[in-house]
Design brief:
The chain is mostly beta strands and 340 residues long. It has three domains: 1-84, no CATH class; 89-236, Immunoglobulin-like, CATH 2.60.40.740; 241-335, no CATH class. It is rod-shaped. Helices cover 5% and strands 35% of the residues.
Length: 340
């Protein structure tokens, strides 16, 4: 005959034996003294070294101790107990499923204590030294609680990651720490403040997916490490962009020795980003062009507010040209055609 006891997360150290003193009565026996049957062997086993009554048992169905490799960290505990009184720090990361070059990727990081509460604890004299609030981080926690996010190649952060609790810094490697005053005590199954970050995808169209890895520091003695790391992958997609260009100087005739200005408008009608578009302008004979100015709308960025015309003859790159945006160049030229 066997029985199972569910240990709640609020149970204190040492209460996972048979605290109720469960016994079974053997109806085939008539003598009261022998009718009581112990649930399992090792009735006198007790991690604190104090015997239970003959009607209780520490082991559940075995002659020794409960087998396992998860140790509570309590000095007086059996070396093979299968009890986890320590915290279990874990981290989960999510990211945009796909992005096109020039667009942003949003990351969200959730750090969690999925294990037992971490806080001041008092043990029996034969067990571990009492854990006070001052030494909780070094004894049971992580000092300080740290989340480290290593960004993949091909992305550039727009700034340090942000959080209402963690303090983050860095560029290619974002390091976020939670002060001990905010980290401890920790209740069981606690989710810490969320960490968010935004990066710009700089990888070229057709590049392999960008995989980001984040790691949370382990609690002292933590044995479950697989959930201390999380990855999120973003596919690099090639968007479709329809670009248009127009050029005019507002007149049908020009006079030799005079000047004229050409307005060149580059527009992205979408639907995807047109970052990196290159504009080239080579004048015909009879024109000597000198300067160029540029203005942009709807979030587009000019190469520069003004530039020498010579740069257009080799091509200038428009760094940002989102869907629905325009970049307008005004080219100033002198007319030196001799006519017929």
């Amino acid at each position: 005959m066997s029985f199972a006891v569910t240990i709640p997360a609020t149970a204190t150290a040492g209460t996972y034996h048979n605290p109720a003193g469960v016994v079974f009565l053997d109806p085939t026996r008539t003598t009261s003294a022998v009718r009581m049957v112990t649930p399992a062997a090792e009735a006198n086993a007790n991690r604190a070294g104090v015997n239970y009554s003959a009607n209780t048992s520490y082991a559940s169905g075995s002659a020794t101790t409960v087998l396992g490799s998860n140790y509570s960290g309590v000095v007086g505990g059996p070396t093979a107990e299968d009890v986890r009184l320590l915290p279990d720090f874990s981290v989960v990361k999510t990211a945009s499923a796909s992005a096109t070059p020039g667009r942003t990727i949003s990351y969200t990081i959730s750090a969690i204590n999925t294990g037992w509460a971490v806080g001041p604890q008092s043990y029996a004299a034969t067990q571990a030294t009492d854990v006070t609030l001052a030494n909780v981080p070094a004894t049971l926690g992580s000092n300080p609680l740290t989340v480290t996010d290593t960004l993949p190649a091909g992305v550039t952060p727009t700034g340090a990651f942000t959080s209402s609790g963690f303090a983050c810094s860095g560029s290619g490697v974002q390091v976020c720490t939670l002060s001990n005053a905010l980290a401890y005590p920790i209740a069981a199954s606690t989710t810490f403040a969320t960490i968010t970050g935004v990066v710009t995808l700089t990888a070229a169209c057709g590049a392999s997916p960008r995989t980001n890895t984040v790691v949370i520091s382990a609690a002292t003695g933590e044995t479950l490490s697989a959930n201390n790391t999380s990855t999120a992958t973003t596919a690099v997609t090639c968007g479709t962009t329809l670009l248009t260009v127009s050029k005019n100087n507002g007149t049908a005739t020009v006079v030799s020795g005079g000047t004229t200005s050409y307005t060149v408008t580059v527009a992205n009608t979408g639907p995807s980003d047109g970052a990196g578009t290159t504009l080239t302008d080579v004048p015909t004979a009879g024109l000597t062009c000198t300067t160029v100015t540029c203005t942009a709308t709807a979030g587009a960025l000019c190469p520069a507010p003004s530039m020498p015309f010579a740069s257009l003859t080799t091509g200038v790159q428009i760094p940002t040209l989102g869907a629905g945006s325009t970049a307008t160049f005004v080219v100033n030229c002198g007319v030196n055609a001799s006519g017929f």
